[in-house]
């Protein structure tokens, strides 16, 4: 359950709902939102008013028929038609306003969540550290369901209250016995439903959402890693994983169905009584001539309206339980996004500076489980490139993560050039969706670089024919699938050259290249006065750096001049 308590219907759920819902109604859009809500309430009042009038007319023309009074009958039918023509636009407009407001709320909340997701690099933290499941589903679907259903249920509840007040008077004037009976019946059925079905269905729906998301996540992984899976002939293994995940969906949904079945039995028995009971209770009065038949019909209509208002929770219980499960998921996500920063005493400090400098750096893995580097101090002056070497798992990439500010567990100081003066090139380049131009300019959204210049940068990394091969700089392709790993590394390198940072951190960024291409790229760095800080297993790169940092495991390290350095036999 990812540390989230078993959900249920209670005040905690109500508080969570308010915490998720309130910010929109206090936001910049509040006046428009409140205005639309007010309009929605007015339309709902209109609907209820029309319901009462229709109910009255139904009683009226039934009584006219019973009395064989043609004039009274037709007068009532004309009134019905007039009512209808006024009511139709109100009903139509009600749904339009409700759903438009829902859409605007979704836009606002999605924007709000995206801000928090990208702010303080939460998307990275959640992915690598806390491991909250499927944030994508929470942003794409849970927010949508939350905004729509919040309005849907609020309006249903409000409608129930209005309906109750509107019809209570009608019924009271016809039969008090019916009113007393109704109240007892509604209280009993609501308590019974919440008590018996509540906990079960909310918990089951919570798990259902989670399992559906896991299933989709596993399918996406297969798509993303199709090639390695195909090389491994891993179909049977993948299929069995997916079957296992789907079996969990199936088993959980079976339980949902069992509980829904029991709930439905209760709901049908409950609503069936609605059709019979009012007639039974007022029958005697009609038979004795105290009450017109039409009034009895009107009483039955009012009875049904009040009962559905009073038992609104019973009627919508299934969808309410799904809604509650969604609130819990969204709340858990919001909480993870807002996770407080770790204690400063256990954090590496960061300062902006002209050169790169590390002072007494102690670096741990994110949860402080392992010490990776102990008391590391060094400086990298412009032009004095640093090569980081060491056995696999010694902490080379982790050191780059600490310099980039992604990992902060530990102590000491990282002083580094700010912003675009320092860039990072990973081993597996990120090639975003888009055209070739945007691969070169990423992460800039737009930049005034001419096509001719972009072409020159491609030539510098030996990709001169790339644009022509794939339809020009504007060609939109799935570049990560189309290009070889070495081509991807060169394309990412061209991007870094174009950005001309003063320092470039390369984490095995040329690992897939032949010696000639690698040498060609590193020579470009020197030509542009870009200082390289590289992690590599290639001894040939020594000549492009002035110093070597050797990580020896268990936090130990040594700093040596590159000239005369003997490559360790790892
Ligand atoms: N998110 C994480 N949480 C906990 N430990 C991690 C995490 N990421 C990496 N580690 C551990 O930190 C250690 C150092 O990893 P790192 O990737 O820095 O090694 P490396 O020297 O770059 O290895 P290689 O040469 O194989 O790329 C490894 O033991 C790894 O298992």
Descriptive report:
This is ABC transporter ATP-binding protein/permease. Pfam families: ABC_membrane_2, ABC_tran. Keywords: ATP-binding, Cell membrane, Membrane, Nucleotide-binding, Transmembrane, Transmembrane helix, Transport. This protein has helices at residues 11-25, 30-66, 70-118, 122-130, 135-174, 176-224, 226-232, 235-287, 293-310, 312-315, 317-337, 396-404, 436-441, 451-460, 466-469, 479-482, 485-499, 515-527, and strands at 349-352, 356-364, 371-380, 386-390, 410-416, 422-425, 434-435, 476-477, 503-507, 531-535, 547-553, 556-561. The chain is of the alpha/beta class and 570 residues long. A six-stranded mixed β-sheet has the order 6-9-10-4-11-12, sandwiched between helices. Strand 2 (356-364) and strand 3 (371-380) form a beta hairpin. It is elongated. Mean pLDDT is 87; it is low at 1-7. Adenosine-5'-triphosphate binds next to helix 12.
Integer average pLDDT: 87
What is the first-to-last residue Cα distance? Answer: 42 Å
And the CATH topology of the largest domain?
A: ABC transporter transmembrane region fold
Total individual domains: 2
Protein name: ABC transporter ATP-binding protein/permease
Keywords: ATP-binding, Cell membrane, Membrane, Nucleotide-binding, Transmembrane, Transmembrane helix, Transport
Organism: Paucibacter sediminis
Transmembrane segments: 36-54, 74-97, 151-172, 178-198
